[in-house]
């Protein structure tokens, strides 16, 4: 199987475990007697593991090679899912969430590093769209199994077996996963990469971008219901529209990124995103939903295209560490910035998102000048 095809399948598989904690929490929580807020402990454990593994991914790739990191990290996510399928005690379930995050962070960094060095930017957009496909299929799979009377443990078992098969496939093809870590030139330390101004700008861009993306996705329904008089069903549909447009935007813009040029696309898309966020903040009801859809389409190419340009912008030696730092910053931004937005009055959230989008526009336009 060509590695590009394998990469597409792998990105679908990598999206499978991410939604499971939230999707299964309503049926899982009664078995543990935990309050609703205890879901935060699982999500925090996943985020902590993802950040730690992303930061250390460069050293792991340099030591084990891309194939070794891919096989080992997917095996960790499989072990975490299979462990959860045994319905372990609550502290062990939290520890397994941490293990899942460690695997996810390492494989995310390794796959992004490999694909950004080997494939054109259009493939990065399509690959990240495939992650969205996996993240969409996972709740559907869980819902289907539960509807047929299966337990939540059976859902974890099914996903765990899928991930185990993917880990085995990575192990069998380990020798084929060459990577930028073997590029000519001196090997750079992680600290030296952080001294690079452009690397710091890119890391900050991923932090802010994921804050805008996750902040919009997490707070959209609440803003519509509590400040604009929308009913919950319509607000939920608007949130689904946002995530669907984000995935479809990566598919569609993947067809134009190489023709337009990645940096030109970045400059235009981030400007449209800033304008759309302002539109969401100030547009009257009805038009604000159009602004949300436009915002999702404009945000869609930013993450994969910035990632795709990392080896060319920083050099292959620096990219080994920079990609991991970018994934860690993205994880932190997606978790921290929406939480900070929640401290503000709900009516101010769209304005704060617009301010973040404007800051992102200034930052990305400097990067892609």
TrEMBL record:
<feature type="transmembrane region" description="Helical">
    <location>
        <begin position="343"/>
        <end position="364"/>
    </location>
</feature>
<feature type="transmembrane region" description="Helical">
    <location>
        <begin position="233"/>
        <end position="253"/>
    </location>
</feature>
<feature type="transmembrane region" description="Helical">
    <location>
        <begin position="36"/>
        <end position="57"/>
    </location>
</feature>
<feature type="transmembrane region" description="Helical">
    <location>
        <begin position="318"/>
        <end position="337"/>
    </location>
</feature>
<keyword id="KW-1133">Transmembrane helix</keyword>
<feature type="transmembrane region" description="Helical">
    <location>
        <begin position="93"/>
        <end position="114"/>
    </location>
</feature>
<comment type="similarity">
    <text>Belongs to the major facilitator superfamily.</text>
</comment>
<dbReference type="Pfam" id="PF07690">
    <property type="entry name" value="MFS_1"/>
</dbReference>
<keyword id="KW-0472">Membrane</keyword>
<protein>
    <submittedName>
        <fullName>MFS transporter</fullName>
    </submittedName>
</protein>
<keyword id="KW-0812">Transmembrane</keyword>
<dbReference type="GO" id="GO:0022857">
    <property type="term" value="F:transmembrane transporter activity"/>
</dbReference>
<dbReference type="InterPro" id="IPR011701">
    <property type="entry name" value="MFS"/>
</dbReference>
<dbReference type="GO" id="GO:0012505">
    <property type="term" value="C:endomembrane system"/>
</dbReference>
<feature type="transmembrane region" description="Helical">
    <location>
        <begin position="154"/>
        <end position="172"/>
    </location>
</feature>
<keyword id="KW-0813">Transport</keyword>
<feature type="transmembrane region" description="Helical">
    <location>
        <begin position="126"/>
        <end position="148"/>
    </location>
</feature>
<feature type="transmembrane region" description="Helical">
    <location>
        <begin position="69"/>
        <end position="87"/>
    </location>
</feature>
<feature type="transmembrane region" description="Helical">
    <location>
        <begin position="203"/>
        <end position="221"/>
    </location>
</feature>
<dbReference type="InterPro" id="IPR036259">
    <property type="entry name" value="MFS_trans_sf"/>
</dbReference>
<dbReference type="InterPro" id="IPR020846">
    <property type="entry name" value="MFS_dom"/>
</dbReference>
<feature type="domain" description="Major facilitator superfamily (MFS) profile">
    <location>
        <begin position="3"/>
        <end position="369"/>
    </location>
</feature>
<feature type="transmembrane region" description="Helical">
    <location>
        <begin position="265"/>
        <end position="283"/>
    </location>
</feature>
<dbReference type="InterPro" id="IPR051788">
    <property type="entry name" value="MFS_Transporter"/>
</dbReference>
<feature type="transmembrane region" description="Helical">
    <location>
        <begin position="289"/>
        <end position="306"/>
    </location>
</feature>
<dbReference type="GO" id="GO:0016020">
    <property type="term" value="C:membrane"/>
</dbReference>
